[in-house]
Amino acid sequence: MPSDDLSDHYDDLPGHLPRLGDGAYRGKAIVHWTMSVRDRGTGWLDSRFTTRFRWLMLHGCGCYSVACPVHCVMADHVHLLLHGWSREGDQKGFIRFLRRHSNELLAETGHRWQPQAYDHVLRAQESDRYAYERLARYIAENPVRAGLVKKPCDWPHTGAVIPGYPEMKLWQKDFWPRYWRLRRSREAL
Length: 189
Hints:
33% helix; five-stranded antiparallel sheet; Alpha-Beta Plaits; alpha+beta
């Protein structure tokens, strides 16, 4: 297998984190993903990368029936909070898509993702409304904790991708009430 292959086959190799069964990442699963740049490489993050990365996320979210209420691109890693947007949600497929295509963007700067993304599948007690919003806030505050900005909304590489709702912005006052209404309306899907 080539060293730059980003397939799920890494899950079976010694030294790689085990994954849960595919069912844990399907349907309406909620997962916090972290993708790190190989060797914690920096120097690639700019507005051009972020714009292109968001386009990839939008295409991937639509294709794999996933929503991303918060993503935060940092200098050497990316956090994504993903939620299956329907019973057809496929987060592992989405992550393969996103990593493959964004690796092409990183390659333009001489960087690549580490071979395996880290994931945390949220349990029921972690995915109620308050715990979920607390995790989203924690992700969005990453640049504040790193001393890069004073407020999370000042970091230009943080946002949300909700397929079909481009007007929804993470920092809007009505974002969370609207997000929860949309999630409830999609329960039957």
